[in-house]
Fold:
Amino acid sequence: MRDHPHEGAAAPEEPPGGDGVPAGGSHAEIPAVWHGSATNRVQWLLAAIGAACLALGIDLAVNSTWTSGLAPLVMAVVGCVAAGLLVLFGTLAFVHVAVRVDEDGLEVRCGHMGVPRRRIPLDTVVGADFVPRVTPRQWGGWGYRWRPEQGTAVVVRRGEALLLRLGDGHTFTVTVDDAQGAVACVREWLRLRRPASAA
Structure:
């Protein structure tokens, strides 16, 4: 027999922000720090092409027996090496993106070395939206892009993306898996900051 009618009931929720985790409403499960990423395996193919160009340039420099003069050989070597490095590093930098959202803002790290990197403080953000489909064609290609009528974006693959609306009127878009989770986290942190800002 129970002495207490509410025995076994779930404990009341802690007040929002008590443990650093956004809480309240339907967003009670949102973590204090949200992590997401996106990868484009097609970029590895482009990186391989860049590596092949680089290898060709090195092979020409070491093993070439051209008899038509030094200038054409130098131009061929420099061209292959430059093209190879440009394609190789340009693709490897954007084969992967990692996104982190916390109470201070959003951080984006590109490539496996985390470069380029961008940090957007949450106090410069006025809203967040889920974009169901972003394509490189919309932004003029892969990578870190800027278009005056659209803002700035990091595009590593087709698909869903997080869009931040900034206080200066600009936007920042990043393709990331579970973009809806990122949007929910940003919106909840913004909601929790409003009372503190108004105080």
Observations:
- Strands lie at 34-39, 96-102, 105-110, 117-121, 125-134, 143-147, 151-155, 159-166, 171-175.
- The two ends are 49 Å apart (CA to CA).
- Residues 110 and 116 are 5 Å apart (CA to CA).
